[in-house]
Amino acid sequence: MPAILVALFVLATVYFIKNPGGAMAARLLNWEKLSTFITQHLMLVFVSSALAIAAAVPFGIIVSRPYLRVIGVIVENAVNIGQTVPSIAVLALFFTVLGLGFKPAVFALWLYSLLPILRNTYAGIKSVSPDIIEAARGMGMTPWRILTHIELPLAYPIIMAGIRTAVVINVGTATLATFINGGGLGSLIVTGINVQRIELVLAGSILSAIMAVFFDHVLGQVESHLVNS
Fold it and tell me: In the chain, where are the structural domains located?
């Protein structure tokens, strides 16, 4: 499946380069421009997602501890409320604070992708049966060993589901980064709308969609490997 998706991505790229639909669209639908947009899009997704995982998973573990139960409930409710904020509003908010460019776009995407990862990490660990944890304590296991050998392995599927959701959301939301000069495939979509060239809109949309399906499939395989190992 990954090979098929990569091949489909390449074929779609070649098709749009060979059939730009006019001289105006051809200025953007060429190898140099498309490779730049694709690279920018991938960087936006990779950097923001990696930073979100590095921040949200440890924080989700911390607030799931019994002595922070009250804080954990507050954080969970705040995350649920924050998830209702439209992604374009998040980008617009941080544009006014941080200005234009790649870094503000990454920061806004990072903040937006924190939510599903943090929520699922917390929920995954809290879903572990207290009876299992009590049995581990009775066997003399330390809190650290209980966390690393019991709670996290049992919570992996839920945590990975949050990461998959965040990455797929990031692929789509990254198309909006063009509004704050963050680059990416959204530049094709917005330009296509402005100049009324459907080829540009389709190129940005289709390549983004294939990219999202690819990441979802790859992370799904990682999830299956972690669960079965």
Answer: 2-228
pLDDT tens figures, 54-72: 988 998 888 888 777 777 6
User: Closest Cα partner for 79 from 115, 114, 124, 107?
Assistant: 115
Task: Report the CATH number of the 2-228 domain.
Answer: 1.10.3720.10
Number of neighbouring beta carbons within 10 Å of residue 87: 18
Name the amino acid, one letter, at 78.
A
Full-model pTM: 0.84
Sequence-ordered alpha helix ranges (H) in the chain? 2-18, 23-26, 31-63, 69-82, 87-98, 102-126, 130-138, 143-146, 152-173, 186-195, 198-228
Q: What is the CA radius of gyration of the chain?
A: 21
What is 156-218 written as a DSSP string? HHHHHHHHHHHHHHHHHHGGGGGGGT--STHHHHHHHHHHT-HHHHHHHHHHHHHHHHHHHHH
Phi, psi angles (nearest 5°) of residue 181 = 65, 35
